[in-house]
């Protein structure tokens, strides 16, 4: 409840004596982005997108901060250094823009633009953003860059959209000019299909988290609803896209019930091919961007879809933001990605076990699984073994909590109750942050709840109880091998991937890799790390010759925890 300052008696009498005209709320200014993709060529490549940005009510002095675009966003190189045909004007006419780049920063470096004279009125910026067909040169990264396949293109706004330097919140209006795209072309964004405007004002970060896909694309449903589920994809997946999206739509409706959602919030799924780490994806502004290649397993991809949908309903902690609290957002998404489809009868018990054991195997064989949470942000992109920890360790932590809550309450309560309590805080305007989770888990489990959380964050091994996943399954051990790249993992994020730190006797060394070899293509690792039998192929340049080196990136054998169907439990038990 909001508390008003007490008024003096005379003031209250004055207010009661005459009607008060309340000021109408001031509508947020509207930033309009028009996207005009070029015609695709015979190979289905869209070479560029012409972008127009109209920013209202600008007032800036000569040389004052005006516009910006990240140079790198989430390990993805943006179009900041490759865009062309840049021009700008305001109410007084054309503007000369001056560019300046930040020095390399540990967080995010930007390209900034200022104007040589004062700027007044509507600022219009036009430029051409190139669209790529190449793998991300920086290696593992979410699918955010402008990419083209099959006559369509897609990308996150933060990789191509120039935005105001000020932190003003704008309603975002997306307008599509598909005149060059041919008949049947469509434009879709996180906000919906076609020309749309966000109902709420968006901060610059939220503007950047808007996703777009346009051109020759596929959709389900063909006529998207005004609210609820919609999907769109480019390229040709190795599965029936419509059938998979119909499955995802059904799961979405189950989630509405599980998380007691208010109304039917829009939820969009965008799918596109990916050359590195296909089968993964990212959640942005209530949408999921998933990727595939011709080897993507549809059954496994369902868990990715289920995972990312959890993010839309639970989101992340309000603070601390970013990778520091990814144990919560990613861990809870992994925890629910198999449990909720199992409850809904949309996967089998065996499929549940396979997904659970993939997570458990990767965690319990990870030689870095005692890395403290505080180290993860700085090492996240440098080492796949660190990158997967928030997912794997977080999920097993939530399984541990769920089991303890069920036992303490004699089966009357579960982790669901704690999650719903957190979501209820957010709905009532209270912070859903780290402190709120500490209070929630401590209220449920007593001091032990806080102690276990702090131990997990400090790097202590997380081990759920034998029956943490229900009466049908029991904990066992199995001999599994640790993931071992065979050389310094930071090689894979360096501008030129020159091998160093080769481990003598490792599978990489035995296969013929040498210090000084150059790896000429980005290397996917996250999925391979989870698969005991998956080989790794490096394209290596040595003495002017390029050739492949393939090996099984595994080291020592260790006993790892897994879960199996309990003896005597019927196959129908789940």
From TrEMBL:
Keywords: Hydrolase, Metalloprotease, Protease, Signal. Residues 1-23 form the signal peptide. InterPro entries: PDZ_sf, Peptidase_M4/M1_CTD_sf, Peptidase_M61_catalytic. The keyword Calcium does not apply. Coiled coil: none annotated. Transmembrane segments: none annotated. The keyword rRNA-binding does not apply. One of its GO terms (molecular function) is metallopeptidase activity. GO terms for biological process: proteolysis. Residues 317-366 form the Peptidase M61 catalytic domain. This is Putative metalloprotease with PDZ domain.
